[in-house]
Amino acid sequence: VNLKGANLQNANFSGARIQNSNLEGAMDGDVLMADDTIINSGAELTKVTLPSGKQYSSPAGKIKEK
């Protein structure tokens, strides 16, 4: 999935499965979606780089610095 240049504002990730996606560089200018928004969305995230640059993988709450 290539989200480069995508505007994810007001997007609903509920139940979405995002695997091996790279969200780095997807935000041009202001960050449109905070880490917490993505993590709390209910999406199943595996090996995802969040806007802050932190790595996230399911289950929820397991965040580690890059």
Outline the structure in words:
By secondary structure, the chain is mostly beta strands. It has one domain. It is 8% helix and 18% strand. It has 1 helix and 5 strands. Strands 3-4-5 form a 3-stranded antiparallel sheet, with no helix packed on it. The radius of gyration is 11 Å and the shape is globular.
In short:
This protein has 66 residues and is mostly beta strands.
Helix content: under 10%
Radius of gyration: 11 Å
What oligomeric state best describes the polypeptide chains here? single chain
Largest sheet: 3 strands, antiparallel
SSE ordering? EHEEEE
As laid out across the biggest beta sheet, the strand order is 3-4-5
Low-confidence stretches: 27-31
Counting DSSP E segments of at least 2 residues, the number of strands comes to: 5
Whole-number tally of structural domains: 1
* Beta-strand share of residues: 15-25%
Count of discrete alpha- or pi-helical segments spanning 4 or more residues? 1
Distance between the termini: 21 Å
- Find the structural class using helix and strand composition: mainly beta
| Shape call | globular
Q: Mean pLDDT, rounded to whole units?
A: 63
